[in-house]
UniProtKB/TrEMBL annotation:
Keywords for the protein's UniProt record, in alphabetical order: Acyltransferase, Calcium, Cell adhesion, Glycoprotein, Membrane, Repeat, Transferase, Transmembrane, Transmembrane helix
GO annotations of cellular component type: cell-cell junction; plasma membrane
Compartments, as annotated in UniProt: Membrane
Pfam families per record: Cadherin (PF00028)
Annotated source species: Crenichthys baileyi
Predominant localisation class: membrane
Stored Gene3D superfamilies: Cadherins
GO molecular function: acyltransferase activity; calcium ion binding
SMART domains xrefs: CA
Classification via SUPFAM superfamilies: Cadherin-like
The organism's place on the tree of life at top rank: Eukaryota
Protein name: Bahd acyltransferase
Biological processes per GO annotation: anatomical structure morphogenesis; homophilic cell adhesion via plasma membrane adhesion molecules
């Protein structure tokens, strides 16, 4: 018997005697098939898939799933529930409507695989169920402004660096997809054209010569803006540039002796060391480095001096 195929039968019962002429009587017998819970609820689709924006508001209905159960009465009543433990989605147990219950964020989790159970309302121990999956894919929304790394920049530059030198390099992170994650830079103040900022790479270059004696600090304001549409987001940071004093070349090098005398034997081979001269320079760094050369005199071409050591 299967009530779901046929729920009643009508039997015609006839009785005869063996007399002549034969007599008969008949009666109809209706047999009703009582339902038992032998069907599980079946989802109309094997799996469900939905794409929603990541900023979908709490309470928004995203989909309705449906399962049917061929049994009768409570045996055929369907109750829905979420098997996946989540605080972000909920389901209406009677109509299968799935809705948002928490703040979604594609940058945190880009999609969810939810398991949904449909069971019938038969007595506990006898009820039947089935399970389907719902894939929720979050669509990106431009909701992250560019983030500066680090949040504030400190840079130092020697006052004599050449024009075009990169004095600072601005970097940001923007995890949004596509245009929403593409960042362009600009200078809010450029100190009358002292600096220029490459809008794509974030490199800040010097465009006018620095002079420690005139200005020791520059405070640049940099704007980073993504190309998101229709909403574009921006952030602002500061670059503190300190100019480092460079000692100008103040002193000339000098020899400790006005004249030196060297003695060499007339048959000395080429390459023989004659003497070593030594000069001083009071400047520090590059300005105080000394190089030697022979400039004039009667021995030109016959003697050579080591540029570095003075030998
Ligand atoms: Ca049944
Ligand atoms: Ca059932
Ligand atoms: Ca963005
Ligand atoms: Ca986003």
């Amino acid at each position: 018997m299967d009530r779901e195929k046929r729920d009643h039968y009508i039997l015609n019962l006839t009785i005869y005697d063996f007399g002549r002429p034969q007599k008969a009587a008949w009666r109809l017998l209706t047999v009703h098939i009582v339902d038992t819970n032998d069907n599980a609820p079946q989802f109309l689709q094997e799996g469900y898939r939905i794409v929603i924006p990541e900023n979908t508001a709490i309470g928004t209905v995203i989909i309705q799933v449906e399962a049917t159960d061929k049994d009768l009465g409570v045996n055929g009543e369907v109750v829905y529930s979420l098997l996946t433990s989540t605080t972000l989605f909920g389901i209406n147990s009677t109509n299968g409507i799935v809705y948002v219950t928490g703040q979604l964020d594609r940058e945190l989790v880009p999609f969810y695989n939810l398991k949904i159970k449909a069971r019938d309302n038969a007595d506990i121990g006898r009820h039947k169920f089935s399970v389907t999956s719902l894939k929720v894919i979050l669509e990106d929304v431009n909701d992250c402004p560019p983030l500066f790394i680090p949040s504030v920049y400190k840079a130092r530059a020697l006052e004599d660096i050449p024009l075009g030198t990169v004095v600072a390099w601005i970097e940001t992170q923007d995890p949004d997809l596509g245009f929403g994650g593409q960042v362009r830079y600009s200078l809010v103040n450029d100190h009358s054209g002292w600096f220029e900022l490459d809008r794509n790479s974030g490199a800040i270059r010097l465009t006018k010569e620095l002079d420690y004696e005139i200005q020791q600090f520059y405070n640049l304001t940099v704007k980073a803006k993504d190309k998101g549409k229709p909403v574009s987001l921006l952030s602002v940071t500061f670059v503190e540039l300190e100019v480092i004093d460079v000692n100008e070349n103040l002193y000339a090098p000098y020899f400790s002796h006005f004249a030196l005398t060297g003695i060499v034997e007339e048959n000395a081979p080429t390459g023989t060391t004659l003497l070593q001269v030594s000069a001083q320079d009071e400047d520090v760094g590059r300005d105080g480095e000394i190089h030697y050369s022979i400039r004039d005199g009667s021995g030109l071409g016959r003697f050579a001096i080591d540029e570095e050591t003075g030998v």
